[in-house]
Amino acid sequence: RQQNPNISPDIVLIGIGDASLDRFGEWPFPRYRTANLLEGFARVTSQQMRESAVFLDVFFNAPGPVAEDDAQLARAIAENGRAFLETVLTETENPPSVYDEYFERQEVLFRGWGKLTHIEGDWTKVETFRGVQPPLKPMGRATSAYGHANFIQDDDEVYRRQGLVVKVAKLVGEVSLEELTPESLTADERLSFHRLA
After folding, report:
1. Alpha-carbon distance 35 to 38, whole Å?
2. Cβ count near 117 (within 10 Å)
3. pLDDT category, 1, cuts 50, 70, 90?
4. Which residue, among 147, 87, 148, 83, has the nearest Cα to 113 in the 3D structure?
5. Cα separation, 130 vs 172, whole angstroms
6. Cβ distance 82 to 143 under 8 Å?
């Protein structure tokens, strides 16, 4: 191995390559494999020798084929105490069949870890996503924190940027143009419309 001088030696990437596939079979691996990895980290007796954080770049936003594996993974995430999960953000809204469920899952993450509420600078320039695909609720409740791994495509279809802070827009209601009058809006809503105009 050759150490990249631009990457801290404290960061270790565990990739899934041909050797992993030869040993463990087809991708995606059963979820108990990820659970076993996290359980192995948690068994290190010296806390100073343990990892500071484990970022799992694997999506757990749909139930796996074996419910017991999902349950084992949720337990392993909780017991590890240092595992971070990710939410997939989409530019298009979630389909109606999963719209409420996906935002309920995101609320599990918000309740556990909060929302960013005090952003300095021009918030209108922060990238907006309209759909979310968070992890399953038991895994979301078990995680030590969460984030997103979305990259933003430039006009030439090259990915050069990743927003550390993004906005997620959720449809909370619809109002027909005929119903939209100054009297029908709260003071805050009138102020928001004034800012957008």
Report:
1. 5
2. 5
3. low
4. 147
5. 12
6. no
- Tell me the C-alpha distance between 121 and 165, whole Å: 12
Token reading at 42: 């948690």
Q: Tell me the three state secondary structure of residue 123.
A: helix
Cα separation, 88 vs 34, in Å, equals: 19
Q: What pLDDT score does 102 carry?
A: 96
Q: Enter the tokens of residue 145.
A: 């924190």
Q: How deeply is 170 buried, as exposed, middle or buried, from its count of CB atoms within 10 A (0-12, 13-18, 19+)?
A: middle
Task: Tell me the HSE value of 71 on the side-chain side, using a 13 A CA sphere.
Answer: 3
Cα three-residue angle 85-170-145, rounded to 5 degrees: 20
**Which three-class secondary structure state does DSSP give residue 159?**
strand
Model confidence over 115-155: pLDDT tens digits?
A: 888 888 888 888 889 999 999 999 999 999 999 888 888 89
pLDDT by residue (tens digit) across 60-95? 999 999 999 999 999 999 999 999 999 999 999 999
Q: Tell which residue, 172, 183, 164, 171, has the closest CA to residue 130.
A: 171
